[in-house]
Amino acid sequence: MSVSTQPARPLYRTPSIFRDFPHLVAAESTRHGGVSPAPFDSLNLGLNTDDTPENVAENRRRFWQALSIDPTRVAASYQIHGNEVLTVCQPGDYQGFDALITCTPGIALAVTIADCTPVLIYDSARKAIGAIHAGWRGTVGGIVAKTVAQMSREFGTDPTDCFAYIGTCIDECSFEVGDEVAEHFSEQHKYFNQRAGKFYVDLKKANYDQLKGAGLADSNIQLSLHSTALDVADYFSHRLEKGKTGRMLACISMVENG
């Protein structure tokens, strides 16, 4: 299991787990480098916020341009905090899916995040990719394991050939939950804080264990060192900022003819 480090205040960060694959573009945006005013300052990429559409459009233009990705080749879905996986053959806007997979070069898969866990997967043998939005409900619903299984069915993916990045999300010490949420998580993915009288859940560990359980090697999984709640100067946190904030994107794409 590796970890990521990059210079402070970039427009996006690139997972180092994918650095040996030059035909692969993978990134996770920060909140820097955009035009949106507070409380969406500044690189708000979320379409469903109270920010102006003009600001979001300009922010998205800057993000995709920085990655040399054609925005007309992006596939994304209106996420519902579920565990449905869509096999994508064409770019476009979809509805009701929290994970997207494809084996088509040139399509960029993107998920929107602001505390939930983004997971990016690359099958280095079959040349297939996946992008996952794992909220607590999706995590409980096994969305990461379900995505790997669907890649295996659709593309013949062998999990031992896969590399994965578990991205920036709310950290264990900040994700306080009630009993009605905690009861869905196993003991190794939560702890009870006696002083607060509340459970705290580790989404990164829960999704990491799903990847391991699906067959990925420990050395092929990278965990972000960052936290949306602890590093709110660099990332948007829906919980910490009480819903008045922007959204990030995590994306992955295979370059055509790469």
Describe this structure in words.
The chain is an alpha/beta fold and 258 residues long. It has one domain (10-254): CNF1/YfiH-like putative cysteine hydrolases (4-Layer Sandwich). 19% of the residues lie in helices and 28% in strands. The protein has five helices and 16 strands. It is globular and about 55 Å long. The chain starts with a strand and ends with a strand. It holds the Pfam family Cu-oxidase_4.
Instruction: Show unreliable segments.
Output: 2-7
Question: Into how many domains do the coordinates divide?
Answer: 1
Report the CATH architecture: 4-Layer Sandwich
Q: How much strand content do the residues show?
A: 25-35%
The overall pLDDT average reads 95
**How many E-type strands?**
16
First-last Cα distance: 27 Å
Compressed to H and E, one letter per element, the order equals: EEEHEEEEEEEHHEEHEEHEE
CATH homologous superfamily - what is it?
A: CNF1/YfiH-like putative cysteine hydrolases
Question: What is the topology, as strand order, of the major beta sheet?
Answer: 1-15-11-9-10-7-5
Rounded to an integer, what's the Rg over CA atoms? 17 Å
DSSP helix count?
5
- Helical proportion, percent range: 10-25%
Top CATH class:
Alpha Beta
Helix/strand-derived category reads: alpha/beta
Structure, briefly:
The protein has 258 residues and is α/β, with parallel strands linked by helices. It is built from 5 helices and 16 strands. This is Purine nucleoside phosphorylase.
Tag the structure with descriptive keywords.
258 residues; alpha/beta; CNF1/YfiH-like putative cysteine hydrolases; 7-stranded mixed beta sheet; 6-stranded mixed beta sheet; 5 helices; 19% helix; copper ion binding; S-methyl-5-thioadenosine phosphorylase activity; Purine nucleoside phosphorylase; transferase
